[in-house]
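Hello forum,

I keep getting stuck at the same step: I have a sequence, I want structure tokens, and every attempt I make locally crashes halfway through. Rather than fight my setup again tonight, could one of you with a working pipeline run this one for me? It's a single chain of 250 residues.
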Amino acid sequence: MHTSDSIVIIPTYNEKENIEKIILAVFGLDKCFHILVIDDGSPDGTATIVKRMMVKEEYADRLFILERSGKQGLGTAYIAGFKWALKHDYEYIFEMDADFSHDPNDLPRLYAACADEGYDLAIGSRYICGVNVVNWPIGRVLMSYFASKYVRIVTGFKVNDTTAGFKCYKRRVLETIELDKIRFKGYGFQIEMKFTAYKIGFKIKEVPVVFVNRREGVSKMSGGIFSEAFFGVMQLRWDGWTRKYPEIKD
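Reply #2:
Ran it on my machine without issues. Output:
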């Protein structure tokens, strides 16, 4: 029986080259993490690979999958995963990509920031110690870096990597945030979740990580995702002035 207080949520769409490898890497860590894959109808058989692993005795009680029909967006995938994790009583809930751009070996460091140091949200940050990005085209590095700068300037939000998708939440953060009111689906989703946690008053720590561009598979980034983030930030600034945020419950 592999019990754990932690679940790693991995959204997938056409990740057959990576999914088994990333699952094995997480399960190879000294700390026991469970994994929830959210697959948006991958036509390449990603979900089939996961389900084939799930029937093996060593994975049966710590590998899970939610299958959805068609591409519904990163944000809605994570919201579905968050609700599943809360229902199943996990205390620490992680976001991580399937393509090894996030190093599984950093999961225990994010966990320690929340479980041992008392933070409510730990962010795997590419920009807290310079620019720690490997094998990205320079144009994409600059776009990502200055997108975070833009968010900081517009919102006053003092996080260096506002678009980071490698995170650990304490369950009380996700219980407090009104998940059904989160509007954005791509980069905007990542910004909105962090900004909302910040406005509510949760303690946030950036943990330095190195981001490595995917080696296999195809990136899901698009111009529409960046556009959503750009215009969504102005809406978040307005919300910061006008919205009544939930209060932290003891």
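The radius of gyration is 17 Å. If your local run keeps crashing, start a new thread with the error log.
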